[in-house]
Design brief:
Blueprint: H1 15-36, H2 45-50, H3 57-128, H4 135-148, H5 155-165, H6 178-181, H7 194-200, H8 212-227
């Protein structure tokens, strides 16, 4: 490159020249600075991006308060949900307890009803099986057993045949007729021979030919088989 050659008469800068150059440089720097600042004295986006943000103590307090409020609100919601769930559980338990109590009361009432019914049945059975120990009671008890076993017969004809055969004596025995001659005398209220009593004995009565009820029922059973009913018997049979 060609070297700078001092101009004649301008080999050195005077003090006036230096001052002039310094002034020009200052004005140029000022112009550059002004051109970088937009009208109105506002900074550019680049300046704001590089400028650090400064938060005041009040801003921090406000943020903390907001967060605290949000946490408190969330806590209240959780507590409300828990309380609601607890109330629902307690309500369910109360309903279950009420249902259990109702079921238990129903079962107790049913037991009492069954017990009362059983007592009535027992009382009826006692009343039904209690008869006076006389001819009237024997005939009535025999009729009850005959009814259960579908054996026909009436009080009137039973009583009539008994009075003709034994005069109402359950220990009566015939020692003079053909049966007696054959060694099988007639016995009891309706004068039944032992083989006939054995053949027509009704379960539930005593196996004793002298027992008045057993004798009546066996004789009525025999008469029903041979004559259709004891009511059809009006003489020796």
């Amino acid at each position: 490159m060609p070297q700078n050659t001092p101009v004649k008469g301008h080999g050195r800068l005077t003090k006036a020249h230096k001052l002039s150059l310094a002034g020009v440089a200052g004005l140029g720097a000022a112009a550059v600075a002004i051109s970088l600042v937009p009208g109105g004295g506002q900074t550019t986006a680049a300046d704001s991006a590089t400028t650090p943000v400064v938060y005041s103590e009040q801003h921090i307090k406000d943020v903390k308060a907001s967060v605290t409020d949000q946490l408190a609100g969330a806590s209240l919601k959780v507590e409300a949900a828990a309380a609601k769930q607890k109330a629902a559980a307690e309500s369910g338990e109360k309903k279950d307890a009420a249902a259990t109590a109702k079921q238990k009361a129903s079962e107790e009432r049913e037991k009492e009803t069954v017990s009362r019914s059983s007592e009535r049945v027992d009382a009826q059975q006692v009343a039904a099986t209690t008869y006076p120990d006389n001819l009237d009671g024997w005939i009535r008890e025999a009729l009850s057993i005959m009814k259960k076993n579908d054996i026909p017969g009436s009080y009137y004809w039973l009583h009539k045949n008994i009075m003709r055969e034994s005069s109402g004596n359950p220990k009566a025995i015939n020692n003079w007729d053909i049966n007696a001659i054959n060694g099988i005398p007639s016995k009891g209220l309706l004068q039944v021979i032992p083989p006939t009593f054995e053949a027509y004995h009704v379960a539930g009565t005593k196996k004793d030919i002298y027992d008045p009820v057993a004798n009546i029922v066996a004789a009525a059973n025999y008469a029903a088989d041979r004559y259709g009913s004891i009511d059809n018997v009006d003489g020796p049979y």
